[in-house]
Amino acid sequence: MAWLDPDSSFDPNAFGAPVLGICSALGEHDSGRHRHDRGQLLFTRQGCVRIDTPGRLCLLPPTQAAWIPAGLEHRARMRETVDYRSLYFTAALCEGLPTQVTVLSVNPLLRELVERIALAPFATAWDQGAAAHLLALCLSELQQAPRQPMFLPLPGDRRLARLLEQLDRLPPALSELAGQVGASEKTISRLFRRDTGLSYQQWRQQWRLLRAVEQLALQRPLGAIADELGFATDSAFIAFFRGLTGLTPGAWNRATSPG
């Protein structure tokens, strides 16, 4: 195990062990675009992480984990303080795991397995004894972990580049976007369907969901979140959030609080 300080660097490709674990707590961190030869499991004990990949934005809420496949270019951005564990697996161990960045639910067993592997010495013999059983159980739990819809597919058409440069702001209504882009509403709708599989309204609602989860993780006031996301009242925001997650914002915060 390595404790990664904010000013430290770590290259998982530089080690021969089949699995490596690191622990860290970073604030306002931007990894920059990079890739590595290992699959990575990023588990957040506290805080929220944005993970950018080509054509896809993924949001990792607290107490859940993101699987990042080997060789995939990505960028991790952390807001405020994020307490996390990161495991790196050789490609040979990644069979049966997702081929794109995916957010996974973490049950108590998987959480404990991640913690134990993250704290293990780099010299651990993972091919024998209790360590081999620990690793096999962790991989089995990862393969079975429920997937969470915490991602936003991104359109690739150059006419929408300005929209994608402003993803921290509520996307405009379709009619307003058409005026900004200089294309018809029908054309924009076709582009979104082609590139994301979603209508523009569905895409905008998914943006709202991810932004809401991020702001809740940052402990923003409910009224401020509702206002930022364009809801006239707090109750309208609560109904929207519950409709997509099955939980009220308060219940979501309690469910994702470190235990």
CATH names the topology of the largest domain as Jelly Rolls
Query: Could you report the average pLDDT, rounded to the nearest whole number?
Result: 93
Q: What is the approximate shape?
A: globular
Question: What characterizes the major β-sheet?
Answer: 10 strands, mixed
Number of helices: 9
Order of H and E elements = EEEEEEEEHHEEHHHHHHH
CATH homologous superfamily label of the largest domain: Regulatory protein AraC
- Kindly provide the radius of gyration, computed on alpha-carbon positions and rounded to a whole number of angstroms: 20 Å
Segments where pLDDT lies below 50 for 5+ residues? none
Please give the domain count: 2
Please give the CATH architecture of the largest domain.
Sandwich
End-to-end gap: 22 Å
Could you tell me the number of beta strands? 10
The class by helix and strand makeup works out as: alpha+beta
Report the CATH C-level class of the largest domain: Mainly Beta
Share of helix among residues?
Answer: 25-40%
Organism: Pseudomonas muyukensis
Keywords: DNA-binding
Pfam family, one: HTH_18
Protein name: Helix-turn-helix transcriptional regulator
